[in-house]
Amino acid sequence: MSVFRPDRLPSLNRLPKELGREERFCEACGEPNLHILYQVPKKVIFVYFKDHPGNVHATCIKCALSTVLTGEERARALSLIKARTEPSGSL
User: Fold this and answer.
1) What is the pLDDT of residues 8-32, one digit of tens each?
2) What is the number of domains present in the chain?
3) Domain range for residue 44?
4) Within a domain: 5
5) Which of 22, 45, 55, 79 has its Cβ near the most Cβ atoms within 10 Å?
6) Cβ neighbours around 13 below 10 Å, total
């Protein structure tokens, strides 16, 4: 029996996680377009870190140009995750 199993799915830790979609100005296109916001894990040796300074990206759907979000934009995008996971309303 082999130690390596090629039929096994890759770890989900390596996949980018979509945070949401929003209309943003694209510098490459020169016009506002829909962008996909996503969180990218960073590999350090054999471990993937989800929380690092350059982990939030926005990719234009039209031209596929990706930009790293920083500062307030990054905080706002990460708050989308918290808003989806928190229970809403009361009983």
Assistant:
1) 555 666 778 888 899 999 988 999 9
2) 1
3) 12-77
4) no
5) 55
6) 12
Chain-centroid distance of CA 13 in Å reads 12
Residues 6+ apart with CB under 8 A from 28: 60, 63, 65
Q: Encode the chain in three state secondary structure.
A: CCCCCCCCCCCHHHCCEEEEEEEEEECCCCEEEEEEEEECCEEECCEEECCCCCCEEEEECCCCCEEECCHHHHHHHHHHHHHHHCCCCCC
Kindly give the pairing relationship between strand 42-44 and strand 66-68: unpaired
pTM value > 0.90: no
The answer to whether residue 59 is domain-embedded is yes
Which structure tokens are listed for 1?
């029996």
